[in-house]
Queue: 3 jobs
Job 1
Amino acid sequence: INTSKMAFKCMENINQFLEHARDLGVPAQETFQTVDLWEKQNLLSVCICLQSLARKAPKYGVQGMGPKEAEANVRNFSEEQLKAGQNVISLQYGSNKGATQSGINFGNTRHM
């Protein structure tokens, strides 16, 4: 860590942070450019990077911030199960019993 207040040394610190964030698993598309933080231009991308880093924190024994990162939920179906799914009639998926939006009057009083 450079303690100098010179601009290029501070920007080196930001760049080192970004390299370490990528090493910890932050995807490249969730990082920011060094000038985004240094010139305070695109602070949204800086926040996205910090949130992404916080999601990775529990893997390293540090309390994270925000929602837990999703885990893969791979499902393997047999040919028999896939064929059985093709025999389901679409109305068995669920129905709204023919409900429509007819008769809805926005801004009008309800006449009883």
Job 2
Amino acid sequence: MSKKILLVCDDNEKSEVLSSALANSGYDTTSLSDSSDLVNKSVEVNPDMIIMDINIPIKDGYKICRDLKETPDTQHIKVIFVKNDNNPLEKAWSVVKGADFYFATKNPFSENNLIQSMSVLN
């Protein structure tokens, strides 16, 4: 049975590339472009993992992560934040807010590095 991933990304091109890479690695991916209904969608899809940018539209990733970890039906879901820099303060704050992993992207973005990092959480 493949692992389910809920991908929250407002960049359509990056979302498509990442969804394709995840599918090629055996993951079943559902994508959202904003956080407006993320907690409800998480209950519906019951993903193993959520991958999202901290600065997603509607409600920021920190608040969403806290909501997910405080909701009994979603508190078990692993949360990975993806960010374009390796700011130690943001990384620490992510952990405080309940994220399971903080992935600092590099230019160019490497889907393979993210997928390797995800395997540590499985």
Job 3
Amino acid sequence: MPTNHTFVGRHATQNRPGRHHTFCAAPLAAQRTGSSPTTTGSVSTAPAELSSGYWGAGGSWPPSRPTQKQSTNGPVVFTIGPVTPGQPRRPLVEICTDSLDGSIAVEQAGADRVELCADLPLGGTTPSGGMMTAVCEALTLPVAVMIRPRAGDFLYSEGEREIMRRDIELAKQAGAAAIVLGLLTPDGQVHVAATRDLIERARPLEVTFHRAFDMSREPYEALRALIDLGIDRLLTSGQVADVSAGLALVSELVAAAGAQLSVMPGCGVQEHNAREIIEATGAREIHFSARERRDGGMTFRNPACAMGTPEVPGEFERDATSVDRIRALLVQLGG
């Protein structure tokens, strides 16, 4: 039977010397019942118990997108459609970077949020405590900190989860505005219990579930779990290597989530396709790396020795965040 849901807005304000950040997280999700949408032939439909409140109204799949975020307990944060005073003029742009210089470049370029990682060529891991603090102190932009103890899959031992708990505390102490994480079970489902534990430790910060989602077995079940957990934001490429090939799924996820969380496309976003991605999906945020390869500056280079592996940039070159690429993307999005 249909279930009525009540959502309560969360707000957190953070004060540090010389800085004042206020950010709004998505509503808390109440307990929900029902099963995921099913597909018959080429037409996908939501079960009757999901025909209102959760997946949207009308019973069809995907449901129509709302024109703006609705809340009885908090402000309208995002808008899709006509711009009114006090609402964003373009989608929010998040830039991932793995350095202090890159983070400063993001702010100089005019983007809206930094996702701070280490080891971007490996998909991003947890930055050091020193990096977290230096970046948060240097920027006025909100900083979302990646919490991922290693490269590879997203099945973590209890020891690794303890490291994640401690890193979340370091990020909060550093002044982060959001935590980015993702955990799966061996059979490819969202690890609900472990994720809930980390969310509780992260609050009152926002929480993004990263592209671990793209490695999950069933995207609609995973989305349901994330909404039930109260996740604020989902980063996804549509479960494929490049988001340009996953636009259909991303669009359905945006519609299914509605105002309950923000679905943010990423992986394969470029200056030339960002507008197309937003128009095709209705997403309110977009994720971009803006990387360019630069020479490292060493004048003496020992050709007989190497510290890294072929999968990562060589010792004498590095990936850097490009101000010009960010600005070009913002122009495409109308910023």
